[in-house]
Amino acid sequence: MTTQLDTPHDLVGIGIGPFNLSLAALAHGLPHGPHDGGPATAFYDQRPEFRWHPGLLIEGATLQVPFLADLVTLADPASPWSFLRYLRHKERLFPFYFAEQLHIHRAEYDAYCRWVAGNLPGLHFGHQVDAVRWNPERALFEVDFTQLDPDGEAEALGRTYTRNLALGIGTAPYVPEPLKPLADAPTVPVFHSSDYLDHRERILAADHVTVIGSGQSGAEVFLDLLRARPAGRERLTWLARTPSFAPMEYSKLGLEHFTPDYTRYFHALPENVRDRLVPAQWQLHKGIDAATIAAIHEELYRRTLNGGWPDTVLTPGVSVRTAGRVATTKVELHLEHTEQGTRSRITTDAVVLATGYRERPLSSLLAGLDPYIRKDSAGRPRIDDRYRMHLDPTVTGTVFVQNGERHTHGVGAPDLGLAAWRSATILNTLTGKEPYPLPDRTAFTRFGLHEREQPRTRIPGQLLPLVEHP
Predict the structure, then answer these.
(1) Are 333 and 348 in contact (CB under 8 A)?
(2) Per-residue confidence of the chain (470 residues) as pLDDT tens digits?
(3) In this structure, are residues 33 and 185 in contact, taking their beta carbons and an 8 Å threshold?
């Protein structure tokens, strides 16, 4: 069975994570009548429902951004889809008020987003987008999708048309090459941290557990395992490639790297400079929250009160060269210490890979658009300062990119605190108006000696021109 929806949308979003959910919520706040110019939107996701990192909703784990970094507030504090409106709907405003929490629990953020997703119209879960093409005769994008049943099996095929696209397919768990064969083997307990809670009991039952990765996820998993194991018999090892288990940069001025001001500055830099900056700024987004570091140290210290040391090994500056199975159920890791230039190996019963995420490649999804996409010297899509992919001029539609533009917009691309601002920028550009007025300045820091002039006029019904950058 094939369904074809001939009435074109103004915007179709592919993927319903926090960023496209933010876009959908702010788009819903615009008028939608036939004569008022509001956009007609639809959003598709292959998952049966919204879930945000379910494998890492560890008890007590909190967001690294304040609750104001919800889906809408930093662009529209009066939105009906704000976190505070969610609390009011749940009759929890007073408990939240007295809790005096700036950083909410991850599980609470997930519940808030699921509340929005469950009540916001125009979201289509269980719809897998298969291909996107440009139809020059109709001057529209064609979006082919497969409707899935509750078991994830194909139920029907469909096609819809849209003038513009918003890509929000997010990131995927990253498994280093030496560990991929083990992670794919069902008999060996090697799991990415994104699936930690699904396998927590099996991991806890292992005699010795190794956590690999120095970021927030690695720290939270290590702390959770440490708290759950008896004193003196912890049998935990924590390894990291970084030179230290370093705190995340969380100073007030350091946080200004996650402002629109810095995003504009970064975008205007030459490509080779941007490529050098992103890995050098790892501590802005790959460090560990200071409170988590303190909790780990406190737990370790508590276990020394009766004498002796906990049975734990914490070693930074180490990379995994190769890995293999031992006796079918154990894992042998071959290690190299970067600074010492030494090598060693350990045998462990379970491994948790807190090795982060990578942007999902767009090449397969956008294969039909590939001839139209302008790319940089590294073969990545070029994206302008309003989050539009550079396309051949014969394509009159626009492809907006969400959380796939770190190479052009910097470390703030995956940050929840910039979600509402980016969504508002997209909608302002899409409508050719300014339904969401955005501030000219957002940081005390002036990031360059010369500031780019920002266009402040909007021509109703017209997209702003693309701005080419070297």
Answers:
(1) yes
(2) 556 667 899 999 999 999 999 999 999 989 764 445 568 999 999 999 999 999 999 999 999 999 999 999 999 999 999 999 999 999 999 999 999 999 999 999 999 999 999 999 999 999 999 999 999 999 999 999 999 999 889 999 999 999 999 999 989 999 999 899 888 887 889 999 999 999 999 999 999 999 999 899 999 999 999 999 999 999 999 999 999 999 999 999 999 999 999 999 999 999 999 999 999 998 888 899 999 999 999 999 999 999 999 999 999 999 999 999 888 889 999 999 999 999 999 999 999 999 999 999 888 899 999 999 999 999 999 999 999 999 999 999 999 999 999 999 999 999 999 999 999 999 999 999 999 999 999 999 999 997 655 544 343 333 443 434 33
(3) no
Measured CA to CA, the distance from residue 356 to residue 230 in angstroms comes to 28
Contact 134, 84 (CB under 8 A): no
C-alpha torsion 418→420→423→428, nearest 10: -110
Closest CA to 311 of 245, 241, 243, 229: 229
